[in-house]
Every structure is written in structure tokens, then in C-alpha cells.
Amino acid sequence: AQRVTQPEKLLSVFKGAPVELKCNYSYSGSPELFWYVQYSRQRLQLLLRHISRESIKGFTADLNKGETSFHLKKPFAQEEDSAMYYCALHGNSGNTPLVFGKGTRLSVIA
Amino acid sequence: GAVVSQHPSWVICKSGTSVKIECRSLDFQATTMFWYRQFPKQSLMLMATSNEGSKATYEQGVEKDKFLINHASLTLSTLTVTSAHPEDSSFYICSASKPDSGNTIYFGEGSWLTVV
Questions:
Q1: Is the preceding omega at residue B8 within 30 degrees of 0, hence cis?
Q2: Contact assessment for residue B33 and residue B27, using Cβ atoms and an 8 Å cutoff
Q3: Residue pair A13/A109 in contact by the 8 Å Cβ criterion
Q4: Residues 6+ apart with CB under 8 A from A69
């Protein structure tokens, strides 16, 4: 069964502090992992995907197949990073939907 | 990036009436679209997978007769909430799979439905 677990509902950090949003997954094959961000009253936006291995807005995420994790990290949080962050999994069999974690609300305190 | 648009952005309807939400892929053809609902402060829950020209595949627990999905063209899928009740009030989000981008999924802006 496909499952994405985000253990933290809320994460509060001070501006300039490092951030790590945890994500673990369960999938029998080789999935594609994503992080999506949802700012207040805006649509869901793709933040990054593991296959591109790029850094967006200072965020990075490394797929650890051994630990089945895809944690999102940023060395120095900014106030504008405050948002809901969703980890998502995409199976590798054709047009399959994304499976989302429950999301973590990041609050960056000035 | 590709654009997926939903209409209306928000709608209020009376209990017992039906309401239709449209999802359009504006600059690409989407053979597959997905409908989610999101309750306040909760994650997105997949309702159904909509395939162009065929019947939608509904997730367990989603009433197909209540949430009618039509995907008649490669750029349009519609979700009709029939005989709406207050508990159907939610944020409905569609997404579309873009075939020539490795099936990257793009999201619409969502539609707020309030049933009074």
C-alpha cells in the first residue's frame, strides 16, 4: 500500500534557524517523491521533486531509500516560508494520482 | 509551467441543489485528471481519477452517484455535486497529468463549496 507519513502537524522555528520537515513513505516499488507548498489562500505549488535534485527557495530534499524518507530541509528559515507543506508520492505505473501526507504547517517566527 | 484552471473559485448553494465545478487544462491535453477534496486544516484526499472518454475511478467511500465526474474532452473535466448537503461543504481541487512532461501533475486553484 502507498502511504506518506508526515509526523509533525505544526513546526515553529525562529527566523534564521534551520528547518527540517520530516516525510516517510511506504511503497513497494520505486516511487517518485515530491514536496508541495500551499501558501495562505493560494493553490498548491510544486516545490521540488526528488528526481530533479534541485534547490528551490533554499529548500532541498534527499531521497533516502534505506530509511524510506524524503525530509525537506532549509538551513536558514525566512518568514515568507510560513505555509503548509505536503510530501507526496507518485507511483511509477502510468497515470496514477499523487498520494499526500497530512501536511506540516511551518510557522517562522520573526 | 502548465496551467490548470478551476471554475468557479467559490460557490454557495442551497441544500438539495446540484453544483458543477469545472477543471480545465489551458495549455496542454490531459488524458487524466484527479479530483481531491480538502477539509479545513486537513490534507488533500483523493476522490476520483478521471480518464478522458471513460468512466471515472472512485476511491473507496466516495459515492459515485453523488459526485458525478465527466471527462468528455482532453482539456475539461467536471465534478457535479448532486443534492448537496452542508457536510459536502469543502475545498475541491483538481489536478491534471501532463503527458509530455513525465506525467508531471499540475493543480488547479481550487473551488470552495459552501452548502447552506
A1: yes
A2: no
A3: yes
A4: A22, A23, A24, A25, A63
Give per-residue pLDDT as tens, A19-51: 999 999 998 878 889 999 999 878 888 898 887
CA distance A100 to A36: 9
Say if residues B90 and B66 touch (Cβ distance below 8 Å). Answer: no
Count of CB atoms situated within 10 Å of the CB of B104: 18
Contacts of A50 in chain B (CB under 8 A): none
Place of cell 502511504: A3
Residue among B103, B75, B106, B84 at smallest CA distance from B93: B106
- Residue A1, min C-alpha distance to chain B (Å): 14
Q: Which of B97, B105, B110 sits opposite A43 (nearest CB)?
A: B110
Chain A residues touching B42 at Cβ < 8 A: 102-103
Buried b (16+ CB within 10 A) or exposed e, A80-91: ebbbbbbbbbbb
* Chain A partners within 8 Å of B46 (Cβ): 97-99
Q: What is the pLDDT of residue B42?
A: 81
Question: Cα–Cα distance between B78 and A61 in angstroms, integer?
Answer: 35
Q: What angle do CA A45, A92, A35 make, to 5 degrees?
A: 25
| Closest A-chain CA to B110 | A43
Mean pLDDT of A84-99: 82
Determine the 3-state secondary structure of B67 from DSSP. Answer: strand
